[in-house]
Design goal:
By secondary structure, this protein is an alpha/beta fold. It has helices at residues 3-13, 18-38, 97-101, 108-129, 149-166, 175-181, 225-235, 241-249, 274-288, 295-326, 344-357, 366-369, 373-385, 410-416, 423-426, and strands spanning 66-71, 76-83, 88-95, 139-145, 170-174, 193-198, 203-210, 213-219, 333-337, 360-362, 407-408. Helix 7 (225-235) runs parallel beside helix 9 and helix 10 (295-326) packs parallel to helix 11 (344-357). The radius of gyration is 23 Å and the shape is globular.
Length: 431
């Protein structure tokens, strides 16, 4: 069960002895089991699948062992072949975005069918580039959640078939942990470090203390930043989504349409983009009701929205760094990953924030900011190096669409009551 229940157990039983201690432990164990068995079946109260009973007899060469990562959590089919030294031997990525663009969004059942078609192809191509066969693989690493249930089902069914035919062990990987560990592929990012995962489906602020050891300082209360960027781009009738919005913003006046900072009265690291999105969607409707928006107006709206969205992320990140400092945690780095991490405006402001706090910023290369097989393979390598072994019962596995990463410490952040005023002035943000 989650570590917070262990903590509650320890606190509850402190100061008791003998029968009282046994009773306290029994009550807490019963509570934890109840949470696991009565919750929504999509929830997973273990930190990751490798916390369960695993294959203790498993061994792998620490340098030449081969790990294959499989990614199918959303609309990208990714396969990467990697050795235990972290070298990429071959990989393949098949995107579904052109297909889904025709329908205006990802249709889960269609995405599943495409994954079922693409997974065997991607695996064959990746292994071919590595000059390897399936039987040369020592371990498969599979993203088992979070994600779209039909897409996860396609990946898990494919993996079960491979396991049944070739008896190759499998590691279950948390998709968001893979994003959080990605910078360690190429950079010497040492624990502990702070992570901002900002994408079309998630927004998390995490304290990474080790492999499979995370604290969740903040999370999205509603819309993710990537989703908000896409919807404002759609309102502006931009075919290129968030990327085109960013390009327009470069030519606009970011102070043309001022708005309130989301959650300004809350002293947390949580984020909320639904209100901000609604404000700018209404602004578009208001201006376009009189006449079609010209390029200048679109640029100003894009720039103003981008400024407030990034300021919201920077404010939450600033508070997270102050919280870690208050707790005496010496952060080595600040990692920004996920699709939104490709935004250059965000990167500029992160650099200012890191310069103020004296930490090193790390951005994975753009290819690694979006979903891919390499990050899953790398997380498999990290798990194995940390001593986790593949599980024995893959045929009994279930995917986990909703799967919180790490221990929820957001209430501790709020209790710290850290005031953050005009962060743009604090870190030297000129406007």
């Amino acid at each position: 069960f989650q570590q917070q229940h262990v903590r509650r157990c320890c606190c509850f039983s402190r100061g008791t002895t003998g029968r009282a201690l046994s009773a306290a432990m029994a009550i807490c164990w019963s509570r934890a089991v109840s949470l696991y068995t009565t919750a929504d079946t999509t929830q997973n109260y273990f930190l990751n699948p490798n916390s369960r009973i695993s294959n203790s007899s498993f061994t792998i060469n620490r340098n030449t062992g081969v790990v294959v990562g499989i990614e199918s959590t959303f609309d990208d089919t990714g396969v990467s072949v990697m050795n235990m030294a972290g070298d990429v031997l071959g990989e393949e990525l098949i995107s579904q975005r052109k297909v889904h663009a025709k329908t205006g969004g990802t249709i889960p059942t269609v995405a599943k069918e495409l994954h079922e078609r693409n997974l065997p192809v991607a695996l064959d191509k990746a292994l071919g580039k590595a000059n390897l066969r399936v039987d040369d693989v020592n371990v498969f690493a599979l993203a088992t959640g979070p994600g779209l249930a039909p897409c996860l089902d396609a990946g898990l069914s494919f993996m079960k078939s491979i396991n049944e035919q070739h008896n190759i062990p499998v590691l279950g990987v948390h998709h968001m942990e893979a994003h959080a560990l990605t910078p360690r592929i190429s950079d010497k990012v040492e624990f502990p470090y702070l992570v901002l995962l900002a994408s079309g489906g998630h927004c998390l602020l995490l304290l990474a203390k080790g492999v499979n050891d995370f604290e969740r300082l903040g999370t999205a209360l509603d819309d993710s930043p990537g989703d908000a960027f896409e919807k404002i781009a759609r309102a502006l009738e931009l075919d290129g989504g968030g990327m085109e919005l960013e390009l327009l913003a470069q030519r606009g006046d970011e102070l043309a349409h001022p708005s309130s900072l989301p959650l300004a009265s809350k002293r947390t690291c949580n984020t909320s983009f639904s209100g901000l999105r609604t404000v700018f969607e209404r602004k578009v409707l208001q201006l376009s009701s009189k006449s079609a928006l010209n390029v200048r107006e679109k640029c100003n709206i894009a720039a103003s929205f981008q400024r407030m969205a990034v300021l919201h992320l920077i404010t939450a990140s600033h508070r997270a760094m102050l919280y870690c400092k208050q707790r005496g945690i010496n952060l080595n780095s600040f990692v920004v990953s996920g699709g939104v991490a490709c935004n250059q405006y965000l990167r500029e402001k992160v650099e200012l924030l890191c310069r103020y706090h004296g930490v090193q910023e790390h951005f994975p290369e753009p290819f690694l900011c979006t979903d891919n097989g390499r990050m899953i393979a790398w997380t498999g390598v990290e798990y194995l190096r940390a001593g986790f072994a593949p599980m024995d019962d893959i045929q009994e596995w279930k995917y986990t669409p909703k799967w919180p990463l790490g221990i929820d410490s957001s209430d501790l952040v709020e209790d710290a009551n850290i005031s953050v005023r005009t962060v743009y002035k604090t870190i030297g943000w000129k406007k």
